[in-house]
Amino acid sequence: MAQDRFLIAVFDEWEAVGRVLADLGPEKIGRAGALLHIRKDEPPTLTASWLVQDMAELRFAGFRESMRCTAGRLAEALAKRSAGGVDDLAGALRGWMSSEQAREVQWHVEKGRILLWLEPPTSEDVDTACARLVQASPHLVAMSIATHSEGYLSPPIDRTVSDDVCR
Q1: How does 14-47 read in b/e, with b if 16+ C-beta sit within 10 Å?
Q2: pTM above 0.85, yes or no
């Protein structure tokens, strides 16, 4: 069994996302992460431009607007859960975070906010990124640890999930 430690933070504007990514730098961000949003405006060029260069469109039956998510593991897993009958973002996020956190994340996305999902490569990078995100995000910042098999970002039914708020 492997563990993914990831950080999520919610932002109101692209500029704030850009500032925090620039502050952290590519070595602290890692190459596993995503942006998730329903916004119609185009993001500016970010330090971590790979986060916005290839966006996948996601649809959930119970969610009236389509979402855009950085193509990759998160987008693929969310799309698979949607195709499997999960009808909203909160339901699709369960397994990586508590039901309460998942509902809060969905609420923020519905309000047009930007979700930044990072998987920093080391424990030290997690600590640094968490502290910086707490300073930069006016909303939710959380860290979760999801246990899963075969390195795939979809925990099994009997998964172990713990949530810690980075404040």
Answers
A1: bebbbbbbeebeeebbbebbbbbbbbeeebeebb
A2: no
